[in-house]
Amino acid sequence: MTRILHRTIGSRLPEAVAGQGIYITDSDGKSYIDGSGGAAVSCLGHGHVEVLDAMRAQMDRIAYAHTSFFTTDVAESLAERLAALAPEGLDHVYLVSGGSEAVEAALKMARQYFVEIGQPQRRHIIARRQSYHGNTIGALATGGNAWRRAQFQPILPKTHHVSPCYAYRDQQADETPEAYAARLADELEAKILELGPDEVIAFVAEPVVGATLGAVGPVADYFARIRRICDKYGVLLILDEVMCGMGRTGTLFACEQDGIVPDLVTIAKGLGGGYQPIGAVLLSDRIYRAFAEGSGLFQHGHTYIGHPIAAAAANKVVEILAQPGMMEDVRDRGERLQAGLDAALGQSPHVGDIRGRGLFRGIEIVADKETKAPFDPSRRVHSRIKREAMARGLLCYPMGGTIDGVHGDHVLLAPPYIIRPEEIDLLVERLAAAI
Ligand code: PMP
């Protein structure tokens, strides 16, 4: 019998047959709160009538036109909308079909930028340890996860990694947030100097780390210092907002809260809201002009970039996200979620930290709260929490394992922004019971 190759080979997964609002129903009729929006994807929930209508309308017009022959009004208007809403200076948009593709495109754009401006010697990418930037070859090489990379290492390009900003584990007891941020910026500067300051292309980081650490945001001043170091050496700053972007943290772009503008930013997941696979790279005018005034060709491209139905869905999603009050709702509901988690789990001997921004919250599970020692990896605590939560009708995104030598178990919450206050309370109740 032919079977789908599931991620975990041979796993028996329930069959999703319906989705409405924050709920997914399986073929046994069991209903689950989509507490993680899949993997921080379903920002508007399931079955959103306006998004479905926008897709249907586009399907009735034209479903596909290759971008070497045509552009479409939906793709153009999506790009215009994104650029208008993005931090000042990110004026141009390159459409792709997902997160890894967005990261790949950003890396190639950064490299080609230096070729265009006559600095072809720049060849190094620096990212952070314990990070995830996607599963394609370039994105995998960029991610700082030795376990994920291990068996593919011989075919991966060389990349370089520095420490993530992970205050819960790395900030010293006698260290102020400012001193911690300065230490990390010094580490990046030392890495740039070690590689050769005019040989580095870009530094890549997630503003709020999702999949690998569980909603870990930076300490104040971290990104301002990082921005200054990048500027000092002409290194491009690429922010990966594939997971934390599109309003997830309470502002459309997470980096708005850090008061900096990157040279390139990647988005995906919430951009299509789960209705269509789509991603994008937003780029600065400086980079755009280097291409326009240089070769006039970005040497890249995929068959489905700017797909009309995907663009129509994303256009509607972004239009809804930009409506007045939407981001305030995400922030308010995020506060309620944090307060609920604090009340229900704050005293648990195995909950080390509860953190995040907006409707992007992470819980770090520890064996010992005092020492922050994790559970033995063989106990696979994060997987057991996922299983227990599913049994109770809740989907949460578990992460764990040993990443770059550091072991941890986390649970990530990223519910749709339409979640109602009483549903937040129910989510917390189910999660607490599962933990
Ligand atoms: N970057 C980040 C920060 C991500 O969280 C992810 C997906 N978890 C990706 C890139 C890759 O996105 P995709 O799975 O859509 O290729």
UniProtKB/TrEMBL annotation:
GO terms for molecular function: pyridoxal phosphate binding; transaminase activity. Keywords: Aminotransferase, Pyridoxal phosphate, Transferase. One of its GO terms (cellular component) is cytosol. The keyword Transferase applies. Its cofactor is pyridoxal 5'-phosphate. Gene3D superfamilies: Aspartate Aminotransferase, domain 1, Type I PLP-dependent aspartate aminotransferase-like (Major domain). It comes from the Bacteria. It holds the Pfam family Aminotran_3. InterPro entries: Aminotrans_3, Aminotrans_3_PPA_site, PyrdxlP-dep_Trfase, PyrdxlP-dep_Trfase_major, PyrdxlP-dep_Trfase_small. Belongs to the class-III pyridoxal-phosphate-dependent aminotransferase family. This is Adenosylmethionine-8-amino-7-oxononanoate aminotransferase. It comes from Microvirga lotononidis.
